[in-house]
Amino acid sequence: MTLKLPSQSSHDSAYQKVLCCARAALDKQAYEVKVFHLTAPTHFMDYLMICSATSNRHAQSISDFTEMQLKLAGYSLSSKEGYSEGRWILLNFEDVIMHIFLDPIRKYYDLESLWKQAPEIPISTESLTH
What is the rounded distance in angstroms from the CA atom of residue 47 to the CA atom of residue 8? Predict the structure, then answer.
């Protein structure tokens, strides 16, 4: 079973990227994974993904694995921020932006509330296939 979005083609590059990001994060035991489909509010990304890690090393591990998985799938990373500290890592895959947070930082910045108008895409280990 695969995750399906309303009116999204299974060949949509951004859709495939966000699925790959979610799969990689969940494979590395990220938790509280949230994906937002941004339609009208922004022109610089199609999907925003947010997840949490238990430690700096865990966040770096999620980042490394996600970057590797997307590279294997043929996607390139445009930029990466916050990796050395590992408290808030931002991975920019152009039309997909991924944030990996430690809980106190995630709660403080509360990105979910900034994008609360965007539809949230349900993500779970059961909804993603390998």
Answer: 12
Average pLDDT over residues 39-68: 89
Annotate 37-59 with b (16+ C-beta within 10 A) or e (fewer): bbeeeeeebbbbbbbbbeeeebb
Does the pLDDT value for residue 3 go beyond 50?
no
For residues 28 and 22, give the distance between their C-alpha atoms in angstroms, rounded to a whole number.
10
Q: What distance in Å separates the CA atoms of residue 36 and residue 116, rounded to the nearest whole number? A: 9
Domain covering 14-121 assigned CATH 3.30.460.10 in the classification? yes
110's tokens? 């509360």
Task: Average the pLDDT over 14-27 and give the result.
Answer: 93
Radius of gyration for the chain, computed over Cα atoms and rounded to the nearest angstrom = 13
28 forms beta bridges with none
The letter for the amino acid at 16 is Q
- The SS3 of residue 77 is coil
| Structure tokens belonging to residue 26 | 């969940």
